[in-house]
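User: what does the whole thing look like in 3D?
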Amino acid sequence: MFNEQEILSTIQMVKSEHLDVRAVTLGVNLFDCVSHDLKVFKQKIREKIITKAADLVSVCDTVGEKYGIEVVNKRISTSPIALVGAPFNADQMVEIAHCLNDIAKEVNIDFMGGFSALVEKGIANGDRALIEALPRALAETQRICASVNVATTRSGINMDAVLDMSKAIKQAAALTADDDGLACAKLCVFANIPQDMPFMAGAYLGVGVADSVINVGVSGPGVVKSAIERAIEASPDLSLGKIAEVIKNTACKVTRVGELIGREVADNLNTRFGVVDLSLAPTPTVGDSIGEIFQALGLTSIGVPGSTAALAMLNDAVKKGGAFASSHVGGLSGAFIPVSEDLNIAEAAEKGYLTIEKLEAMTCVCSVGLDMVPIPGDISEETLAGIIADEMAIGMINNKTTATRLIPVPGKKAGDSVYFGGLLGEAKIMHVAHATNKDSFVRHGGRIPAPIHSMKN
Amino acid sequence: MDKLIISVLGKDRPGIIAAISKSLYTLGCNLENVNQVTLQNQFAGIFIVLPPKDLSVEAIKQTLVTDSAGTGLHIHVDLADTDPNGDQAVDGEDFVITTIGPDQKGLVARFTKLIADAKVNVTNLRAVFEGGDTPEANVMVYEVYITPDTDQKGLFAGLRDKASELGLDISIQHKNIFQAINKI
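Assistant: Here's the predicted 3D structure for the full assembly of 641 residues, as structure tokens:
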């Protein structure tokens, strides 16, 4: 039996504070589809994904309706295509991307992740082909998401891959110049990529997991913001330790919702439940923003001094709440700060509170990194590679995931507007110092060695 | 002797449960279940007791009424039919239906008719009507037990249509979501 307060607070979380299940992602292992014949390979991956995912959308909708919690995005992640498609060349990789795109349309999902390569210690033939295929694959498809892991704490940073990715990003932007470089919004460069992440664009199914698995991404920045506001309204002098406790308790509740929904979807699809990824992921909707949490905590805007400390507290409290709620927490589990996808963060950047340097500092203490950041289109390959390398270094040294999803917008400069639409949002282009410099550092290539603390055995 | 069900109604004040349970104890009755609720300032208590074999229902009632004379309490005593309901399926599911919105006469009657027509049992109902200028202060919460043979879609669609017709905000959710969020 529940009291009115319990029932009404739950309804308020859903109806007023945008609590939802942001993504239910079905991971599909494609290793049993491997063939040297492209036609056979495409046929096998098609059969396998459609068999596994035929009911994904209807099951998610039914379960969502049962609990009154919307499952906003239904998605699929696959084994890294660079591995399962290793015999193929770049043109054939583009064909595979088209095939996956058609499958995504057929099963009615908005994004499919897994057009991915793991190259932290070197680039194999399949990896090379996939990276070369990336610009066309992303420009010619709508629903394919790609990720390339170029660094780990155990292996160091593959600087050859960093430069290759810089070139691929520039080319992908050029091929989608009419859409403000939209292809780059579907491409992440990672350090320490998690193999069970449900969120796009980085989701892929790792090599050490089951044949199929349901991973769930739960969001809820609006719920956290409202909980903080209520607590401070009730007690204006509340200490930060107490506020962290409020965030932790809220994150715990949100995580339990995700696990409940995820397990039921997995049962209905006769597949295994993987993890809940509790990441505070915003949308371009007022009240569904990470940036607004900073204001609830008493800062003028995300980006002002104090923001990194606030984000550190937020991210840690979210992890602690999630860990208490479920034994199967994975993925990124923290706070995202994607610039164009969060109305409030985009405004902070426009007003000058948030710079790319401050964003980089904040990525030391939160999930992801330089996410959905539009930058001037004339940025040099060297400077772009330098930004990526800096972000990878933060991940490598701090034994955490970091990533970049940078969009060098062709023909536009700092302060110009870009519009990606939908969940990808809109923003002003951020200023990048020395954007057109051609510093030779990244062209030395090779691998930045793994840090001393990687030697744990 | 079979179990008895005893209901006690009256204006709430300290000591009602203590007085009734003292009388029952003195009579040698064993309390098996007790529940109470207070609506505004009105008390309602339900007791299921196992009386001694040699005591009649009438004798017990007489003692309780005599003991509580002058308190204004209304006491009813009867044999309890504690056999399980034959039509209660064991593999049903509990849903919580919540409506929020402007108070008006007949709300409970209209919703419970739809629920009854679908042969669904209401296992718990709370309605709080504070009226005034804040429609969101008027809340009805029905907990219902949906069996596999219930036309769930039809019932839920009917309830949503009725809520829309009456200008109410309705939520229909499986009980487990409240369990997940509130009970750790």
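In plain terms: The domain at 4-79 of chain B is CATH 3.30.70.260 (Alpha-Beta Plaits). Residues 152-165 of chain B form the longest helix (14 residues).
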